[in-house]
Please model this.
Amino acid sequence: MSQKRCSAPFSNTQPCRIVKKRAMTPNVKMLEVEADAVSQRGKPGQFVIVRVDEKGERIPITLGGTDPKKGTITLYIAEVGSSSQQLAALQVGDNILNLSGPLGNPTEVKSYGSVLCVANGVFIGAHVFLIKALRKEGNKVVSVIGARTHDQLFMVNEAKKASNEGLVAEDGEGFGLLKGLLAERQFNHVFTIGSTSMQRFVSDLTRPTGTPTTVSLFPIMVDGTGMCGACRVTVGGNTRFACVNGPDFDGHIVDFDELVSRMRYYTPQEKIAMVLRERGVI
Amino acid sequence: MPIRSQIEMPKQSPEERTSNFEEVACGYDEGMAAAEASRCLTCLKPQCVPGCPVGVDIPGFIRLVKEGKPMEAARRIKQMNALPAICGRVCPQEEQCQKNCVLGLRGDPIAIGRLERFVADQERVSGVEMPEILSSTGKRVAVVGSGPAGLTVAAELVKLGHEVEVYESLHKAGGVLMYGIPQFRLPKEIVQAEIEYVRKLGVSMHLDSTVGRLATVPELLGGGFDAIFIGSGAGLPNFLEVPGENLNGVYSANEFLIRTNLMKAYKFPEYRTPIQVGKRVAVIGGGNVAMDSARCALRLGAEKVYIVYRRGLEELPARHEEVENAREEGVIFELLTNPVRFIGDSRGFLSGIECVKMKLGEPDSSGRRRPIPVEGSNFLIDIDNVVVAVGQSPNPIIQQTTGGLEVSRHGTIIVDEETMRTSIDGVYAGGDVVSGAATVISAMGAGKKAAKAIHEYITKKKG
Model:
């Protein structure tokens, strides 16, 4: 007999075991990880920070799904740097040394009416997680997912099934599709999650009509609890921390130029780490 | 007549130490400790003890050093202070216990901190003996944050037989002792050893668990804890709010120090957290955090490191010892200077700062003379990195998620100063989240007061 829980756990435990792994695309892996507390408290829009081993970086990852009954969470990892490659190389049964979360504020899920959700790349997983929550509140959701090439698309059927209307954009046709969609139809709210260039593009499209547009930002972060200030973003002329004030912001007033520049700060170090990883040095 | 001067503590030479992260001060050996201890007059009415925020029996432990019993000396300190190896290194003794030492009237005061460090290090090497723990009371206390305040509360209460659980948001316990104070001033192995002592007393530590994002304070209170202590620190970095502050290359001191200390970016790429330090670094601010940042920058390879501070040498809030260490290592002090804006290149990277010279006017509300810009004195410095070290504010997560908790307009939690009790029954707070950014030992002193009040509260509480 399973006992009914009186309340969700107060703390995370270490380490966290990987119970399932799937290759979604050639460079995106799905990991299902044991994390009881996060599985019961985590909401769409929030993130976790993982550290693979004692020498590892703290890597922020947007929550891709939760299974409170099993006590697991789902993370989608794009293998873009040496730390994410290391994480994505773990197998079922391997442990992640540290997992902290949920962090950041949840996306404001309420009844908006007609909603457009746009996602691309590795964030398609987190996007489906959000759509499901929005549908539960009775919203009518049109979703658009995109990727640079066909083989980088994943969860196409899940996204379609979760939405009232699910559209797919391949090979860079997404911008045209979105332009047409936003010109033809009216939405009460737009949510974007994915590449900064896409989120900026959508915000630029909706700014003239004033359709509220929530973007989900992922600047460089260290602690994820407001301590370091690495994730500061200029929003409406004010400095905001993505971890304590976000990660969702009003896309119409985000300083995207600054954001893009700040996200590139460690590119030289990242290149060094990639080369050393390829050569088996780290 | 006692010897007038303190026995010097050996240090790494400035040339040597700026190329490593090893501890700068090397500590007394037995002979040095015995010689320094022998200077103590063992006053019947000691002036030093009232200066100690946690009330260590200073003449008592020094007498044991004189008698060649460092282990007993360590245990004597630990009756009042669970973290002596840490306090021996980072307490501002010159402003506290040593300030009123009778020897100080006609020479140097007794070197209390160096002796405390000596006995704690001796004990750590030879094996720590555990104190007596009172039998279980069945009462449970949750402690939020594992910095100096939280560790002190936890150690005090567990010794009295209460069950204590500590919640820490980072992946390592220790708070500012781990992420803030650099390795060369406070080795992380020593911090972890003292935390291990607190753990062995019976305290459970929950890492990676941010109270307010996971469980909230009201949830903890309703979830079987008889009392809560909030010691979540002053984690939110202040900025100057001048143009260009978000350029690439501008760090908060918190970020700079977390990367360097907690994440060990000085060992990149072996440790995988990167840090970028160019040839010329300017640290804005004049406190201990500013000195720590400047000295880290030197060790990370910067050729020129400036401390840019808006008041003068006399007003530097950092400990004299730290200012001296920084000077010896070659840090350049640009005093009576304030940044007006940060200048970037076309790619959004910092390339310089524009400063203005300052002069001191009438004292302000803090009693310090107010710095006033000197018109027309603006000048440029070429700079690759700025570290902003102008203070921290309390982390807002707990305050935002705890209904009914009274908070000042600065975001600090309001408490009764004697008991550290907050506006919520059963909830106590102390350390930087109450006082604003202060010292390790003042946080421990607050923890001590709170532990006493919590013990009384839960002992009286029924059930």
